[in-house]
Write a structure and sequence with these properties.
Blueprint: E1 3-4, E2 8-13, H1 19-30, E3 33-36, H2 37-50, E4 54-55, E5 58-59, H3 61-67, E6 73-78, E7 83-88, E8 91-92, H4 100-110, H5 113-127, E9 132-136, H6 139-143, E10 149-154, H7 157-170, H8 177-193, E11 206-209, H9 215-230, E12 231-232
Helix pairs in contact: 1-9, 2-4, 2-5, 4-8, 7-8
The structure holds 2'-deoxycytidine-5'-monophosphate.
């Protein structure tokens, strides 16, 4: 008889490549748990902004590091929307963490080793249960180096900026396209060149360039890979 075993799936890639859309689709199709690690870095950034540790032309890293113990991040399922939402110290911050303002500062916060150490520990604890789809920048390299399936996503900067611009517009945020593109390119640079856990494609990661792929095509591709890995006689 054919049995299905649960595996862990690591999805890494550039910003706005649709990692979270694909990860959510996979989790739904397989009844797995989806963890958005970018949301965790965004929540820490929001905390830093609210406490004025970071802002235009200043960043008091030491203060943020000292305050890390006061940051509690969790996810809760919203039964109305059917989506998982991010909580910072008990407060729902799902909408706030997607603001352009947070996007502008998040890469600087994600560069701090102490921040990464805290969040990686939390992510690894969640991954122990198996049946987890996690997306981010260091999932296949640092968080789940043993993940049975690793995906690396990319797409042209123009298409990524266009997607992000449309997403922001739908949320009522009218940011010029050029500004969104600059932010995408700038984050690519910081994410790939930073000293700690830079975004890199491991040899065992399967590349998906979705510049010309539909959402359904991407999901189908991954589900096929999962099928090959999980079906045991
Ligand atoms: O996926 P995202 O755009 O929400 O991620 C926000 C930022 O957090 C991005 O600039 C890179 C950083 N990040 C990271 O360094 N490591 C992760 N595992 C996830 C995100």
């Amino acid at each position: 008889m054919k049995r299905k075993k649960k595996i862990n799936i690591a999805i890494d890639g550039y910003s706005s490549t649709g990692k979270s859309t694909l990860a959510k689709d996979i989790a739904k199709a397989l009844n797995y748990i989806y963890i958005d690690t970018g949301a965790m870095y965004r929540a820490v950034t929001l905390f830093a902004l609210e406490n004025k540790f970071i802002g235009k032309n200043f960043f008091d890293k030491e203060k943020l590091i000292r305050a890390l113990d006061r940051i509690d991040i969790s996810f809760k399922h919203n039964s109305k929307t059917g989506k998982s939402e991010t909580y910072l110290n008990g407060k729902n911050v799902e909408k706030q963490i997607r603001d352009m303002h947070v996007s502008e500062y998040v890469s600087q916060v994600a560069e701090i080793p102490e921040v990464r150490e805290k969040l990686v520990k939390l992510q690894q604890k969640i991954a122990r249960q198996k049946g987890v789809v996690m997306d981010g920048r260091d999932i296949g390299t640092v968080v789940m180096p043993d993940a049975e399936l690793k995906i690396f996503m990319t797409a042209s900067p123009e298409i990524r900026a266009r997607r992000r611009w449309e997403e922001l517009k739908q949320k009522g945020m009218n940011i010029p396209y050029e500004q969104v593109k600059e932010n995408v390119v700038h984050r690519d640079h910081i994410d790939t060149t930073r000293k700690h856990s830079p975004l890199t494609r491991t040899k065992d990661a399967i590349l998906i360039d979705n510049t010309h792929l539909s959402r359904e095509e991407q999901l189908e591709k991954v589900l096929q890979l999962v099928e090959n890995l999980t079906t045991t006689e």
